[in-house]
Write a structure and sequence with these properties.
mainly alpha
């Protein structure tokens, strides 16, 4: 196994298993006696947990990677203290503001199982440090084993109660229990590796570098949650479930591209190896393109007949949303943010994210009036591509690095145009 594993492939495997588990859970739910309303309740729970934590968690994790690669110790415990503090604050904030969430963002509906949601935020969010510890330490086999075991357990704890006829609340309890098990494992990892050392200087450095990344992630990533809140504020839980099942884009594109980007952040932290790292990034992106674009085309052609079979007839309309999100593969494979993050040039990323959010929300509110929930998906694709083009221009202006230095531009353009043509064909035919 060691022969085929490196930090990039191992982390890509982790992300793939994580996302595949989410998809399989959704498939099982639609094959049981669960109502569309109950599925919408589960999706709302997961959606809210992500909405109040995604930005600061991802920002802090991205800051951790280049910082730890330049130090002898991983400082995982210091990062844990920071993330645990943020998770407590997020949980308390949700408890205090839940009437506002219900009234303005959930169309008057209550937050499902708010006590469980509190536990999930406090314990489940910090547990994400486990895989990043393995990534920093380059323990590639450990990443693969951890992904396989932890998500298999999560899958069983969530779907077994539903298969046995219990209500959706038992599935949510299974989700929380799996997060508690990961939290316990994080402590075992930190103690067994003698990582229980608090560094105030690292915390200050972590927050300093992470601050702009948190802001950038909030501005950029919040667009998907704003999209969700637009749906929940204008439509019922059944429509929200249809939107969420379609708004998943190509799992492989998102997971493999993000994993590649994150795995290369420690490399780009070493400025003296910039040219070699650009070549490495270009080769890695090229490999991904030759795999992801053909898969995208196939999915575009089969999604409409496949969705009612994989899920059920109630989710047939999710196929159009899914097809629109498949076009995100075009922007996913354009990675100027990897270069900027690795070199700790984070302010332009924050500015680009602000522009993306404004564009996304504006277009969503306009398009939803004419195209329904599909308009929200179109707005996301347009805004995300704008952000990547803007960041690519920053990389060129500040570092004199052309797009062709980190992606094979000709084949990328041909693949992108081909995906757009096949999307038009798929939507017109079906």
């Amino acid at each position: 196994m060691k022969k085929y594993l490196n930090t990039i492939s191992a982390f890509q495997f982790y992300q793939l298993v994580k996302y595949s588990t989410l998809i399989l859970i959704g498939v099982v739910f639609t094959k049981t006696a669960l109502t569309q309303n109950a599925i919408g309740e589960y999706e709302t729970f997961v959606f809210l947990a992500g909405a109040v934590s995604f930005f600061w968690l991802n920002g802090l994790l991205k800051a951790l990677l280049p910082l730890s690669s330049l130090k002898e110790k991983t400082n995982i415990f210091s990062a844990f203290v920071v993330i645990q503090t943020f998770s407590l604050l997020a949980a308390l904030l949700l408890l205090l503001l839940h009437p506002m969430f219900s009234q303005f963002l959930l169309n008057g509906k209550g937050i499902p199982e708010i006590g469980l949601l509190f536990l999930f935020l406090v314990l489940g969010i910090p547990a994400n440090l486990v895989e990043y510890f393995y990534l920093i330490k380059k323990q590639n086999i450990a990443i693969v084993i951890y992904a396989s075991v932890s998500f298999f357990i999560q899958f069983l704890l969530i779907v077994l109660p539903i298969i046995l006829g219990y209500k959706i609340e038992m599935a949510l309890k299974g989700l929380v229990i799996s997060s508690i098990l990961r939290y316990i494992w994080l402590w075992i990892v930190m103690i067994s590796n003698s990582e229980i050392q608090l560094s105030i200087s690292f915390i200050k450095e972590h927050l300093k570098l992470g601050g702009p990344l948190i802001a950038a992630t909030f501005l950029s990533g919040s667009a998907q949650f704003v999209d969700g809140f637009i749906v929940t504020s204008k439509f019922n839980e059944e429509t929200f479930a249809v939107f969420r099942y379609g708004a998943r884009e190509l799992p492989l594109a998102m997971l493999l591209a993000n994993a590649l980007s994150n795995a290369m952040l420690p490399d780009f932290a070493h400025k003296e190896n910039l040219i070699q790292n650009l070549v490495k990034l270009k080769k890695s992106v090229s490999k991904l393109m030759h795999f992801l674009f053909p898969v995208t085309v196939i999915l575009l052609l089969i999604s409409h007949p496949a969705f009612p079979v994989v899920f059920n007839a109630q989710f047939e309309k999710s196929a159009t949303i899914f097809n629109i999100y498949l076009l995100l593969v075009i922007s996913r494979l354009l990675m100027p943010q990897t270069i900027l993050n690795g070199l700790k040039i984070t302010r332009p990323i924050m500015g680009a994210s602000l522009f993306e959010l404004i564009l996304n929300v504006s277009l969503s509110l306009i398009f939803v009036q004419f195209l329904g929930i599909a308009g929200i998906a179109y707005a996301t694709v347009i805004a995300f591509l704008f952000e990547k083009i803007y960041l690519a221009s920053i990389v060129k202006a500040k570092l004199n690095i052309a797009v062709s230095d980190y992606i094979p531009i000709k084949i990328y353009t041909m693949y992108s145009l081909g995906a757009i043509v096949m999307f038009i064909f798929a939507e017109i035919i079906f």
